[in-house]
Amino acid sequence: MSRVRIRRREAPAGGDWPEAYPLLLRRLYAARGADGSTQAQPRLADLPPPDAMPGIEAATALLEDAISGDRRIVVVADFDCDGATACATGVRGLRMLGARNVAYAVPNRAVHGYGLTPALVEELAALRPELLVTVDHGIACHAGIAAARARGWDVLVTDHHLPGETLPNANAIVNPALPGHDFGSRALAGVGVLFYLLLALRKRLRERGCLPAPEPDLSTLLDLVAVGTIADLVPLDACNRALVSAGLRRLRAGHGSAGLNALAQVAGRERATLTAGDIGFGIAPRINAAGRLEDMAIGIECLLCDEPVRALELATALDAINRERRALQQQATDEAETAFAGLSNDWDSPPVALCLFDPDWHAGVVGLVASKLAQRAHRPAVVFAPSQPGSDELRGSARSIPGLHIRDALAAVDAAHPGLVERFGGHAMAAGLTLRQSNLPAFETALREAVAAMLDPAILRAELWTDGELEPRHFDRATADLLRDAGPWGQGWPEPLFDGTFDVLASRTVGERHLKLELGFGGMRLNAIQFGGAKGEKPPSRARIAYRLQGDGWRGGDAVQLLVEHLEPG
Length: 570
Description:
By secondary structure, the chain is an alpha/beta fold.
């Protein structure tokens, strides 16, 4: 029996749909909870008002004072794509709104650790800041914020991560996850929170007659908002879908920033048909790679660059870093899978949680390795590497499976064994932590105990949700393009996935790891590919396949292919 159970989403009938609306789209949107075109494709006009964002009044007052007093503002970024895009959005937006003295800084993953730490504050003194604005972090940076306040600096925190039991001593905190508030969307990424702050600040300055003329058009920042939102894998609720859709429209129309246009070029993505998937798998990894292996300042400089030639130089440098990242990730993933196989000998019945460490792994790729392991074993996985070569401090990244909140599991470990974990934080599906290498065996035991106590055993069998079968008439380029353009698709609003039973007419291995197939269905011959699907075994002559429909870029024209997500005997 397959470890994967294919289940089909139900699509309620009815709803408020225009008469000409394609029936296939009605079915897909209804299965995702929309009962009409307004819910399915929300607009910017439908966004929650900026005034409703928790902490917005104090934050805009702080920024208004800094702008009017020409105070030195330093935007403090995080070293992932959300943090980089939020930083670029903040720097660009504050300058548009009249700030003349804006700089940015970003921690080095290996030197400073995560967020606004005392070590980073020490280095920031050279910039002579008067106001620090954290983006995509800060809600857990108690020590760093205290160190900044002790120097006489003001601190404005913008974040979207869950707060702890106590809040840091910042002058103002903007975070939709603050308790006791109902903003209307807790799914915003860090860049979305920062964009909302800029909207509220523009309104405040307009009311006071302090806006530069002509009035700044903040919608020009939506390309950055879209990229950061997609990259951070936050749920694409109605608010995020409206923001991402607007950003994608700018990018497709050629109105994106020079840096993002250059990144799309080096990633080999067609700008006119850019999708959320192109960003998630093409653009975002190249920005993220800088923070994982080098200095995220390279990525931020690319996003701030307005000169196309220079932007392409920076994008090419990011592409080279990303190639190095891929090689390190692949090596670590292969070694992790080998190590796990040596411990378990059975991917079909792994332990309740995976915990792996190697002194030679790079801390910048452990999250990617954990994600691969969690996906393959359908178990939460935590992967560790030294925070620096030879260090006793380990930096770990955890990835989970639907139904298990991994940050809550780490909190349970911390509560049962105080001091075992030095620091931790994160979300339901992803978290980070640090601990001493000598504590790793005890942590592994404690994690498995915590996970076993929290999870329902039923979730340990992977479920693959599909949108049912496609009719033979739908296997054409028009349908593939319709599905592509009906997004954005992503977390919480999954890209259409279909399933059906096919005759396997031919198969071969391409690129060492991938399985190329010719399938028979309804009298048609269909091309298909399963990336990573070549396992040395010939597929069955008849197979049930879960797949996505897409245009075939190699053959061009009206050709389509099936992108196989799962294959089992039919």
